[in-house]
Amino acid sequence: MTPERKVLLGDGAVGLSVVLPGLLYFGSALVWWAPIPGALVAFTTAAVQHYAEHVGFESTVHEALFGLAGIVLPLAVAAALVLVGSPLGPPIAFVAFAGTGTGFLGYRFVFGVLRPVPEKRLERAGERVV
Quick check: pTM over 0.85? Predict the structure, then answer.
């Protein structure tokens, strides 16, 4: 399998695995303000990916901390709000999960389908077995 195909399949699976849980909250998350932070989350996710693949982080630790603060933490907060039964839980979960997954899939569509996958990402994909 070529590195390009590995990147597209792997990132597509990750993006879908984040979008699908968010869609579970779609019916209970229909609030007027949801599209605004959803778009902001999607843009932030795509910006983190763009920075990581085009500019790069100083070290793996910086990359992990930035990904944790920018992507994992909002998803964890959204999941916690749902688990404690907060009335804001479903809309925030929808925004966090659907926005993150949409940003991830959108970025990979642009830099993977419409434009070539960046070299830094191809190098990382070539190092992995799967």
Answer: no
Residue 57 CA to residue 108 CA, distance in Å, equals 19
Residue whose entry in the numeric block shows the structure tokens 């979960």 = 93
The domain locations on the chain are 3-125
Query: Alpha-carbon distance 20 to 39, whole Å?
Result: 17
Evaluated on CA atoms 78, 80, 81, 83, the torsion sign reads: positive
Exposure string for 48-69, b = 16+ CB within 10 A, e = fewer = bbeebbeeeeeeeeeeeeebee
pLDDT level of residue 28 (50, 70, 90 thresholds): low
